[in-house]
Specification:
By secondary structure, the chain is mostly helical. It has four helices and no strands. The chain is rod-shaped.
């Protein structure tokens, strides 16, 4: 009779153990998904930032080509470039926020070393708005 009770206990323990292991596995999977989503959102923010930077560079290049040909700059060119620079800086702040969220998520999960995360997802510096006098500075840099 004692043997039967021990076998029942062992069976219940094994069911509980399997159930606990399954729950642990589900928790690990969810943690991995949360970290993955945080990293994907940060990557998307950095890609957006890169695209805006390309727009700024294209507009600056167009302006310089006009000046080299002796043509006046298109009306509102400075305003357009500065609008893109503002958009870039706003997107940069969003990317910084996404990096912060990723780091906080990692720390909540027990990961304390985040230097490699910051190295893998570098946030570029903020851009300064251009002034009319800056146009000649841009030309002299090239």
């Amino acid at each position: 009779m004692v043997q039967v009770k021990e076998n029942k206990f062992d069976a219940i323990f094994m069911i509980f153990k399997d159930s606990a292991e399954k729950t642990d596995l589900e928790i690990l999977q969810e943690r991995a998904e949360v970290l993955g989503r945080a990293g994907e959102k940060l990557s998307a923010a950095l890609r957006s930032l890169s695209l805006i930077e390309e727009i700024i560079e294209d507009r600056l290049r167009s302006y310089l080509e006009c000046r080299e040909r002796g043509n006046p700059a298109p009306k509102g060119a400075l305003r357009e470039i500065n609008r893109e620079i503002r958009r870039y800086n706003e997107s940069r702040e969003y990317a910084k926020l996404r990096l912060y969220y990723l780091i906080v998520t990692r720390e909540a999960m027990g990961f304390r070393r985040n230097k490699t995360v910051e190295e893998q997802y570098p946030i570029p510096p903020k851009k300064k708005l251009l002034k009319k006098a800056a146009w000649t500075d841009i030309r002299s840099r090239e």
